[in-house]
Amino acid sequence: MLTLLLAALLSSSKSEIPPDAWDCENTVEVWCAVDGCAAQPEGEMTPMSITASRDGAFSVCAYTGCWEGKTTLIDQAGRLLWAGDAAPFSTKPEGGFEADITLLIIEKEGVGFVRAGGLASPLLCTRRPVDQGLTE
């Protein structure tokens, strides 16, 4: 009986802890292509806003819209990886603007990296409870 009670308490306390989500932003802008990478000058940087959650949802916002999608989250010893192919852009210019998205967050340090279209930028990330919703 005591074993059953202890098991019930432990399982209920685990379910009360909400899964986490992340809010990230870049402080520099880097463009990478086959021939190399280059950082944009400080005044010409495109601010990005990135959100991601443990259920696999992600949103990578830049310019006038966001690439959004859902994938299977890979958690490798606190290195969180979201990888989505052909994520649609929320405000499609003529001809569309899909991009493959790669988002990596080092949980312990709150730093990360995003690759979306030609953008390849380091990130600073903050963890928050997922019940506060994804922001754009």
Largest sheet: 9 strands, antiparallel
Number of domains: 1
Strand content: over 45%
Rg, alpha carbons: 18 Å
Task: Tell me the span between the first and last alpha carbons.
Answer: 49 Å
Helical fraction equals: 10-25%
Bulk shape: globular
Protein architecture, described:
This protein is mostly beta strands. It has one domain. The chain has one helix and eleven strands; from the N terminus they run αβββββββββββ. The strands form two sheets. It has a nine-stranded antiparallel sheet, with no helix packed on it. A two-stranded antiparallel ribbon has the order 2-3. β4 and β5 form a beta hairpin. It is globular and about 35 Å long.
Question: What descriptors fit this protein?
Answer:
11 strands; 136 residues; mainly beta; 1 helix; two-stranded antiparallel sheet; 11% helix
Short description:
The chain is mainly beta. It has one domain (18-130). Helix content is 11%, strand content 50%.
Set out the fold topology.
Blueprint (H helix, E strand, L loop, with lengths): L1 H15 L3 E6 L4 E4 L2 E4 L9 E5 L3 E6 L2 E6 L3 E3 L2 E9 L11 E8 L4 E6 L2 E11 L7
Antiparallel strand pairs: 1-4, 1-11, 2-3, 4-5, 5-6, 7-8, 8-9, 9-10, 10-11
